[in-house]
Amino acid sequence: MKAMILAAGLGTRLKPWTDHHPKALAIVNGKSLLERNIIYLQHHGIRDLIVNVHHFADQIIEAIRINNGWGSNVVISDETEEVLETGGGLLKAAAYLRTEENFVLLNADMLTDMDLSKMIVEHQLNQSIATLAVSERESSRCLLFNDQAQMVGWRNNTTGEERGPMVTWQNKQGIHAKAFSGIHVLSSKIFALIERKGKFSMIDVYVDLCAQHAIHAFDHTGANLIDVGKPENIQKAELLFK
């Protein structure tokens, strides 16, 4: 199985580090976020991956080169001309990933000890187009799932905006809100279903597809997870990930 690590973001929340470095190279206990996520994938048997780059792309490329991919085979997807967000970035890397029946997509700035192998097995058993890692925690935005753990929508908890097939339901009982953790297991069949072009989010793709295609939740509540996109979370991450 292959994976893609999303490392092209500007990392504006992680200033001042990202004034001079990409967020993927932020350090937690002596190891960069990128290194930690590459090793995390190795622990689950994945050593072939593609990393997209934009902000200080040369630093990421050089770090991968001098460290020999930290033991993995790493290909670069160059987005230096324009950052394409999660969906556009994935679509640009399609030629590398579509040779696999399934693959993993994850954000470089999320650290977790979630059982990815279990998530992959559930994805395969459910024959889903996408399986999304979620948990019970506070978040400004959330994904909405029915009692069968199938995605039915998206909600902005700040504004109350909702999108997806569930917004037309008169009775919204049995709807469960979960915070998304930035980890996806995807079927390569999804490439034929994506109609958006250019710069777009995978969340928009899931909202587009969830009425007609199986998109399931993998609830990892209880596992360690931290978004290292903010400076104050570096210290929190250092307590959790040695």
Compute the CA-based radius of gyration.
17 Å
Per CATH, the architecture is: Alpha-Beta Complex
Residue share in β-strands: 25-35%
Main beta sheet:
10 strands, mixed
Structure explained in plain terms:
- There is one protein chain.
- The protein is an alpha/beta fold and 242 residues long.
- The protein has a single domain, classed as Spore Coat Polysaccharide Biosynthesis Protein SpsA, Chain A.
- It has 7 helices and 14 strands.
- The strands form 3 sheets. Strands 1, 4, 5, 6, 8, 9, 10, 11, 12 and 13 form a 10-stranded mixed β-sheet that branches.
Structure in a nutshell:
The protein has 242 residues and is α/β, with parallel strands linked by helices. The protein has 7 helices and 14 strands.
Descriptive key words:
Spore Coat Polysaccharide Biosynthesis Protein SpsA, Chain A; 242 residues; ten-stranded mixed beta sheet; 26% helix; alpha/beta; two-stranded antiparallel sheet; 7 helices
Write the layout of secondary structure elements.
Elements (H helix, E strand, L loop, with lengths): L1 E5 L20 E2 L2 E2 H11 L4 E6 L3 H10 L6 E6 L6 H8 L1 H4 L4 E6 L2 E3 L3 H11 L3 E6 L5 E5 L5 E6 L5 E2 L12 E12 L14 H8 L5 E5 L5 E3 L3 H10 L2
Parallel strand pairs: 1-4, 1-6, 4-5, 8-13
Antiparallel strand pairs: 2-3, 6-12, 7-14, 8-12, 9-10, 9-12, 10-11
